[in-house]
Structure formats: C-alpha cells, structure tokens
Amino acid sequence: MNNFLNINIPGKPIGKQRARKGKYGTWYNPQSDLVAITKNIIKNQLPENFKYISKNVPVIINICFYFKPTKSQKKIQNFDPYLKKCDVDNLSKFYLDCMSKLVFYDDNQVFSQKLLKQYYLPKEYTLIEIIW
Q: Is 37 left (phi over 0), alpha (psi -120 to 50) or beta?
C-alpha cells in the first residue's frame, strides 16, 4: 500500500544558495531564515502525530514550481518553457533540504523525482507530492 502526502507552499519558489564565507572567515547559510519559514509551513500541513518517514523507506517526489509570467511573456503571449534562473535542480534542493528530518529522514531516500517548472499562473507557489 502506498502512502502519499501533498504539500502546498505559497509564494515564489526558492532556489538553493551556496553557503557563504563571512567577514571573519566563518561560514553561514544565507537562507537560514527562509528555511525556518518553509519548514514551519510544511510542518503545519503534515497530518497530526506525523513522524517522518523512516530512513530505510524509499520515497518518490513530484514537485511543480509555479511562477508568474515574465513581462516579455505577457507582451507576446509566448508560453514556451521558461529557461531563465533558477535551475530546476536548485529549486528542488532547497525544498528537499527543508523536508529532511521533518517529512523523511534524509533526502538520500528519494529514488525518483519528477520536477516541473511552469509560469502561466497569476499566483506563485510550489506543490509537492510525496509517495512512499
């Protein structure tokens, strides 16, 4: 029997940024505040008494990133795939990191991943489907 979970994260999809070196040589995560906010949004959508998926269980992830059309796309009504920043793999890395120890033990449990970047909608959000 497959278990599944859907998570909807409002707002513009976020890509993973690299760690940065601070003024005095210490490393820091420039997205630590965004990670905390996103984790809280995910946590609020989990079923009551949900414990993360144990580390020996394989997970399938489907993620759809929805963006507003750019100004040029609005002018010419061209709905070709959007190939600008942010890379779809960086988008998924951010959300997989946010779900670690919350939805599943670690993102190395993900054995299949389907990613889609769309920009036709007037509202920006990320839709995540998890199957285990």
A: alpha
